[in-house]
Design brief:
- The complex is a heterodimer of chains A (114) and B (111).
- Chain A has no helices and 11 strands.
- Chain A has 114 residues and is mostly beta strands.
- The relative contact order of chain A is 0.33.
- In chain B, strands 2, 4, 5, 9, 10 and 11 form a 6-stranded mixed beta sheet that branches.
- The chains are: A mainly beta (114), B mainly beta (111).
């Protein structure tokens, strides 16, 4: 149980384009989903917290107009990186939670912006 | 500022030995603590969660929590080469439901 999927697993795009990443909880309803970013050899950095049906809460320093988060249902959240640039290249990981405690991680999406 | 700190390592232990990983946190009111394992290029997977002082054992893994001293540790007994990974400590603060992660400790188990 508690399986989270992400799509795509890997994406390469040109600078200036937008990329959408999907995060789905497959066997449970996720009251909260989280989006993280991880640069090589660094830890996870929380970008935003998303509750179904409400606006995401962004961490300090994360541009909400650049990283658009939609949590339209209890099983789906999307992250759109708008006007991506090479410095946005990173490993983006979502996680989902259905209670107060554990978070379950998706497999991650590796974004490369050329 | 809320912080979670880990020794980045690398930590090397021989196969069969006990690996000890430590984590300290800054918020005395923190309530939930987690250890995740992350293989290179993969996302984290949950190993253990612990919520109250003392030890919690699950197979070869033991989590230890001391809220008065604000640290949580993970012991891996009979370490195996497949345990080689980065171990992330995560703390959930009393307010909100976000997790905050340490920078991780890289563990290498030498055959």
């Amino acid at each position: 149980g508690a399986v989270v999927s992400q799509h795509p697993s890997r994406v390469i795009c040109k600078s200036g384009t937008s990329v959408k990443i999907e995060c789905r909880s497959l066997d449970f309803q996720a009251t909260t989903m989280f989006w993280y970013r991880q640069f090589p050899k660094q830890s996870l950095m929380l970008m935003a917290t998303s509750n179904e049906g409400s606006k995401a809460t962004y961490e300090q320093g994360v541009e909400k107009d650049k990283f658009l988060i939609n949590h339209a249902s209890l099983t789906l959240s999307t992250l759109t990186v708008t006007s991506a640039h090479p410095e946005d290249s990173s490993f983006y990981i979502c996680s989902a939670s259905y209670g107060l405690n554990e978070q379950f991680f998706g497999p991650g999406t590796r974004l490369t912006v050329l | 500022q809320k912080e979670v700190e880990q020794n980045s390592g690398p930590l090397s232990v021989p196969e069969g030995a006990i690996a000890s990983l430590n984590c300290t946190y800054s918020d005395r009111g923190s309530q939930s603590f987690f250890w995740y394992r992350q293989y290179s290029g993969k996302s984290p997977e949950l190993i253990m969660s612990i919520y109250s002082n003392g030890d919690k054992e699950d197979g070869r893994f033991t989590a230890q929590l001391n809220k008065a001293s604000q640290y949580v540790s993970l012991l891996i007994r009979d370490s195996q080469p497949s345990d080689s990974a980065t171990y992330l400590c995560a703390v959930k603060w009393n307010t909100g439901n976000q997790f905050y992660f340490g920078t991780g400790t890289s563990l290498t188990v030498i055959p």
